[in-house]
Design brief:
The structure holds 2 protein chains of 2 kinds. Chain A is α+β, with helices and mostly antiparallel strands. Chain A has a single domain (38-257), classed as 4-Layer Sandwich (Glutamine Phosphoribosylpyrophosphate, subunit 1, domain 1). Chain A has helices at 16-22, 89-110, 116-129, 131-135, 178-188, 195-212, 242-257; strands spanning 39-40, 43-48, 51-56, 60-62, 65-68, 74-78, 81-88, 140-148, 153-159, 165-168, 171-174, 228-233, 236-239. Chain A is globular, with a radius of gyration of 19 Å. The relative contact order of chain A is 0.18. Chain B is α+β, with helices and mostly antiparallel strands. Chain B has a single domain, classed as Aminohydrolase, N-terminal nucleophile (Ntn) domain (Glutamine Phosphoribosylpyrophosphate, subunit 1, domain 1, 4-Layer Sandwich), CATH 3.60.20.10. In chain B, strand 5 (120-126) and strand 6 form a beta hairpin. The termini of chain B are far apart. The chains are: A alpha+beta, B alpha+beta.
C-alpha cells in the first residue's frame, strides 16, 4: 500500500467519490440486464418543533418474498443528519456507506463539516451518478433529514431518480407504502408538534402503511422488532428507544381493536 | 561536455540531513503523552486555523512539526489512504503501524531522491483499549520510524524537552496531570504558556467510533489550573 499522491491537475480535493474514481475504484456501475434484488419500502421524515424526525419500517422484499425483517433503512449520516432509503437494497446501502464516508472525509480534509444543504447536494450528485444503474432497475431513492446549526432549524429533502432535490416544509414519505403513510401525516401534521406527538404520528403513519401495503413491515411484537426511528435536534442524532415505540404501537393496536 | 563533481554519499546525506534539521529547528516543539484516559498531544501553536494536530481515522491522530505545506500534504495523503483502506476492507483494518510505514516510505524517498528533503517530523498516534495498546510512531525527516513508549517529542528542541519530561513526568495517570507535564516541558523554566499559545488534542479511550477530540480555550485553562 502506498500513500496516494496526485499531480496538481488531477487532485480529487476533499471529495471521497472523486478519490475513488481517480484510484480506479468507481463505485457506480450499471449491470447489463435487469436484475431482481431485495427492495426496501416505507420511510418518512417530518419537521417538528425543535428538529426533524426520520423513520422507516424494517422489511425488505424480493418480488413477493420477504427477504429481511430487520433491515436498517434509516441510518445516521453524521452528528446532525440522517438518511433513509427505499429502492434496491444493495446499491442503497452502498450509497449510504459512501455518503457517510464522504461527509466524514470532507470534515477531516477541510477541518469543518459541510453545511446541511451541501450534504443534501452531495447525495443528489450520487443519485445522479447512479442513473445508469437506475435505468436497469436498481433505483435508489433516499430521503435526507438534518438539523442546520447555522439557522437553528431542521430541514428535510426528497429526491427523484435524476438527482432532483426537493426541500419540503412539512413532511416527506418514500417507498411503496409512502402514499398511505403520507395521508396519515397530511391529516395529522402541525407545525407545533412536539417530539412525543411527532413520534406517535410517525408510528401511526407506518402502521397504516403496513396495513395497506404488503411490502411494508408491521411492528413485530413477537421478535421485538420495531421501526427504526430517530430525532435530530440541536443536540444531534438521538434514536427513539424500542421500549417507547412498543408502548406507542401497543396503544395503536388497542385503539384499532376497540374501533 | 561538463562532468558533475563527485560528491561522496556520506557528504550528500549529511548536507541533506543538516538542511532538514535546520528547517525543523525553526519551529516550536510538540509533545504527545499516554495517560489512563488515552493520548494527549500538545503543540505550541498560536494559530487556531493552521493545525499541527489532526484526525486521520477512528483511533488514529496525526501531528507534525516543520514546514506547514509539506506536512499538510502528508496529512491529506494519510486521510486518503486510511479512508480508502477502510472503504475497501473494514474500519478495523486501518491501523497506525501501516500508515507510519507509508509515511516513512514517502519521506525516505523524498530524502534520498527528491529535489530537497522534506523539512518535517511526524507523529502517528493510535489509542488502544488499554495503555498496552497505545501506539506512538515517530517518523523523522529521513524516514526512520521509531516506536516510542509512553511519550514522544517532536521538533528542534526535542532533546531538551524530552529531558525535562523525563525529570518531571506527570504526577498521576490523569489527563490533567499529563497536560500539565507536557506544557511545563514545552515551556521550560523561563516561560509560561497559556491556552492561547497551545493547540491541544486527545485520542480518548472511550467506547465510541471516532476518538479524536480537540480541547480548546477555557477547557485547556481548566485542565491546567
Amino acid at each position: 500500500m502506498q500513500l496516494p499522491r496526485f499531480a496538481q491537475g488531477s487532485d480529487p480535493g476533499p471529495s471521497f467519490v472523486d478519490l475513488l474514481k481517480h484510484s480506479g475504484l468507481s463505485p457506480f456501475n450499471a449491470p447489463d440486464a435487469e436484475v431482481e434484488v431485495p427492495h426496501g419500502t416505507t420511510c418518512l421524515a417530518m419537521r417538528f418543533d425543535g428538529g426533524v424526525l426520520i423513520a422507516g419500517d424494517r422489511r425488505a422484499t424480493a418480488g413477493n418474498l420477504i427477504r429481511s425483517r430487520h433491515m436498517d433503512k434509516v441510518v445516521q449520516a453524521d452528528l446532525h443528519s440522517g438518511v433513509a432509503f427505499s429502492g434496491a437494497a444493495g446499491p442503497s446501502m452502498e450509497m449510504i456507506k459512501l455518503f457517510q464516508l464522504q461527509l466524514e472525509h470532507y470534515e477531516k480534509m477541510e477541518g469543518r463539516s459541510l453545511s446541511l444543504e451541501g450534504k443534501a447536494n452531495q447525495l443528489s450528485a450520487m443519485i445522479r451518478e447512479n442513473m445508469p444503474a437506475a435505468m436497469q432497475g436498481l433505483v435508489v431513492l433516499p430521503l435526507f433529514a438534518g438539523f442546520e446549526p447555522a439557522d437553528g432549524s431542521g430541514h428535510i429533502w426528497d429526491f427523484d431518480v435524476t438527482g432532483g432535490r426537493y426541500e419540503e416544509r412539512e413532511y416527506v414519505t418514500i417507498g411503496s407504502g409512502g402514499m398511505h403513510a403520507g395521508t396519515v401525516l397530511k391529516v395529522g401534521w402541525r407545525s407545533t408538534l412536539d417530539r412525543g406527538a411527532a413520534v406517535t404520528l410517525a408510528c401511526r403513519a407506518l402502521w397504516e402503511a403496513a396495513e395497506a401495503d404488503s411490502a411494508t413491515g408491521r411492528p413485530d411484537f413477537l421478535r421485538a422488532l420495531y421501526p427504526i426511528m430517530a430525532t435530530i435536534t440541536a443536540d444531534g442524532w438521538a434514536s427513539v428507544p424500542d421500549a417507547e415505540l412498543e408502548t406507542v404501537f401497543r396503544g395503536i393496536e388497542e385503539e384499532v381493536r376497540t374501533r | 561536455m561538463s562532468m558533475p563533481f563527485y560528491v561522496p554519499p556520506e557528504q550528500l546525506m549529511k548536507d541533506r540531513a543538516d538542511f532538514a534539521r535546520k528547517g525543523i529547528a525553526r519551529g516550536r516543539s510538540l509533545v504527545a503523552l499516554e495517560h489512563d484516559g488515552g493520548i494527549v498531544i500538545v503543540a505550541e501553536n498560536p494559530s487556531t486555523t493552521l493545525r499541527k494536530i489532526s484526525e486521520i481515522y477512528d483511533r488514529i491522530a496525526f501531528a507534525a512539526v516543520g514546514k506547514y505545506n509539506e506536512f499538510d500534504q502528508l496529512r491529506i495523503g494519510g486521510v486518503r489512504a486510511a479512508d480508502m483502506l477502510g472503504f475497501r476492507y473494514s474500519r478495523r483494518d486501518v491501523e497506525a503501524r501501516s500508515l507510519a510505514n507509508q509515511y516513512a516510505q514517502a519521506i525516505g524517498h523524498e530524502f534520498t531522491s527528491g529535489v530537497k528533503p522534506l523539512e518535517v517530523e511526524l507523529l502517528v498516534a493510535e489509542v488502544g483499549d488499554d495503555r498496552e495498546g497505545d501506539r506512538l510512531f515517530h517518523i523523522s525527516f529521513e524516514g526512520t520510524v521509531i516506536d516510542e513508549d509512553g511519550f514522544c517529542v517532536l521538533g528542534g528542541d526535542a532533546d531538551l524537552v524530552s529531558a525535562r519530561l523525563r525529570d518531571n513526568g506527570p504526577a498521576d495517570g490523569s489527563l490533567s496531570a499529563a497536560l500539565k507535564a507536557a506544557v511545563a516541558a514545552l515551556a521550560g523554566p523561563d516561560r509560561t504558556l497559556t491556552s492561547d499559545d497551545l493547540e491541544v488534542a486527545c485520542l480518548v479511550r472511550a467506547d465510541r467510533r471516532r476518538r479524536f477530540e480537540r480541547i480548546e480555550g477555557a477547557a485547556v485553562d481548566h485542565l491546567l489550573a
